[in-house]
Amino acid sequence: MGEPTTTLNQEAANRTASGPATQAAAPAKPAITPTADSGEGRKLVRNLVALLVVFSAVFLTLYVWSVLERHPRTDDATARANVVGIAPRVAGQILKLNVQDNQAVKEGDVLFEIDPEDYKLVLEKAKADLAALDRQIAQADSTLRRLEPLLPKKFTTAENVDEARTKLTTLQAQREGVVATINLEQLHLSYCKVIAPFSGRVINLNISAGAHVTTGVPVFSLLDTSKWYVIANFREAEVRHMAPGSEAIVYLSSAPNQRFRGKVQGIGWAVKPEGEIDLPAFGVPYVKRELNWVRVAQRFPVRIEVENPDQDLFRMGASAVAIIKGPPAK
Question: Were both Cys, which of 34, 191, 297, 327 would link to 235 (CB 3.0–4.6 Å)?
């Protein structure tokens, strides 16, 4: 019994000792370590990407610069239209005011009416003077016709005939003056109705019926909405890329998605320099520079006539952007 037990114990000990030995004899897995070639490859890719970005930025900058050089643009622009002050040609009290501020009117509409009674009275007096002169002329002509046949027969003197002829001539001259007065008073009477000279919108109306108006003094203004243009201030170096007739694109800051065609009507030939006091106040346009302590390029106003304005969008003084497409085609 003792011998088999000893044999079994030895076999178990041998298996236990062979386990670690077998594990120690097993080959170890090799560790993966980064090589120098893979690191240099990634560094090269990064450098190539950086160079590509730099070259792209330079190319894009040069392209944008060339576009701006050939097609100048500016946001220093405003929409403009002609404005006419509505001034009466006769003085008097406003009897009826037919418009309101910002109202659209058509050419020929009566804007307001001035009390015509004073001018009617002057006209009636002139007509009465004319009737009286006509009677005097008829009498003087009759006297002259009666005296002229008597002169050869010595029944009257030459002095009496000359006096009758002079009186008739004087009365006829007076009649021409009275007729001119009648025509003038009729014209004054027609001026009592102030009519719109063109279609547009009433602006700056601050008066009511009953107010007294004076000849030649504007009561309000009328904006001509039939023709719009943009005054764009371009730097002096950009002016050489445009000329009268150059095509342009303009859009308003209030509607940047809507483009309007235009043509350069003219380029300003004079602006008032900073600090200049010799030029008259309203002789040339004044374009303010942005910086006073840095020498900046002077800007000149360029007038661009809009070909397809939207009457609902364009307003006097609205901010705009102007782009010159290039010189006119030859």
Answer: 297
